[in-house]
Amino acid sequence: MSKDYYEILGVGKNASKEDIKRAYRKLAHQHHPDKKGGDEKKFKEINEAYQILGDDTKRSQYDQFGRTFSSQGGHGQQGWSGDFSDFAQGFEGMSFGDIFEDLFAGFGGGGQRKRARRGSDIAINLEVPFAESVFGGKRSVIIEKRSACIECGGSGVEKSSLMKKCGTCQGTGTVRETRRSIFGSFSSLAECSICKGRGEIPEKACHNCKGAGILRKQETIHIDIPAGIRDGEAIKLTGMGEAVQGGISGDLYVKIKVHPHPVFRREGHDLLMELHLPLSKMLLGGDETIETLDGKVEIKIPELSKSGDFLRLRGKGVPSGRGHSRGDLLVRLLPKLTKKLSSQAKKLLADLEKEGL
Ligand SMILES: [Zn+2]
Ligand SMILES: [Zn+2]
Questions:
Q1: What is the CATH number of the domain that holds 281?
Q2: Which of 24, 285, 261, 17 is nearest to 133 (CA)?
Q3: Ligand found nearest the CA of 196
Q4: Which of 56, 97, 196, 349 is the most exposed place for a label (fewest CB within 10 A)?
Q5: Are residues 181 and 84 both part of a single domain?
Q6: What is each CA distance from 206 to 25, 62, 243, in whole angstroms?
């Protein structure tokens, strides 16, 4: 089952806030695990859906990016030969703030979180062929971003040199600022601008980054595209966003755009295709070879097939979740009518007519 939050709550994409709340209450009541016949898994799912759709900001993020998939990111992923020709398209540096951070953090808890310095998140678009969205794949993209300097690992310190106490703030990382006004003097603590609040500065600055620790450069990012990903969903690569000195890097969001397929259409985890057959084959039935995403498959057309009948090919659809079960391929049978009838065909059809067909 796909995890569409609208589907889970049984509401349409245009449902009002009230509708969502009502649907949530009804379902939560119905599936509450303390109740007889309750279903804890379902209950959790309903809650998760409501946490997103019940919140205007999170809902609009969800509408825009769908569910996000966490990926382990590219560093240390080796041993595959991919095609390096794919560049990120429509690259843009965007900061989502903490919206995504909170997205699946659950709810409750509350309280104030201490914020460390954090680099900006980056969002890129990636177009993938239909088959790749079904079976998954590996991609490499090159993006330009602020990254930790490879010479000093982001510290800004020259190799073989050490850190020393910042003379400006005496190692405290803060300086006292005094301002005079007509009401008297005020003093307050501010971050030391020399050491950026760290209390330490390099004895000798890194030659490569001049002590900044961070450089703007191109980096190749390896992306694992999960099987079954949908158009509009995003892959999250934690820590692959912009780096910031003395803090943690932001995240990279890869928004997937799936190319439509000329033959197959996706519906949930099923694939749909149309198969046009001569009228005689619809009536008499017989073998037919079709091209599926898994290659050629022989199917049996039943005798007296009606226009619009479906044949179900089990397990030839889209993989669902982490398990290996796959949806089905539904083949819709339609008669292929000729543009012109030969006199011979007319004669045969006249005979059929006598048979009452
Ligand atoms: Zn300082
Ligand atoms: Zn450096």
A1: 2.60.260.20
A2: 261
A3: 1
A4: 56
A5: no
A6: 59, 42, 17
Angle at 61 between CA 57 and CA 62, to 5 degrees: 115
Ligand nearest to the CA of 152: 2
Interval between CA 245 and ligand 1 midpoint (Å): 15
Global pTM exceeds 0.85: no
Helix/strand/coil for 260? coil
Q: Do both 123 and 179 map to the same domain?
A: no
Residues at Cβ < 5 Å from ligand 2 ion: 149, 151-152, 206, 208-209
Q: Which domain holds residue 72?
A: 65-105+116-162+203-260
Q: How many domains does the chain have?
A: 4
CA–CA gap between residue 186 and residue 169 (Å, rounded): 19
170 and 276 assigned to the same domain = no
CA of 171 to the centre of ligand 1 (A): 6
110 in a structural domain: no
Q: Which ligand is nearest to the CA of 217?
A: 2
CA of 200 to the centre of ligand 2 (A): 16
pLDDT in tens, 65-118: 676 654 433 333 222 222 222 333 333 333 333 333 333 333 333 333 345 678
Q: What are the strands of the beta sheet with 329-336, ordered from one edge?
A: 265-267, 270-278, 329-336, 310-313
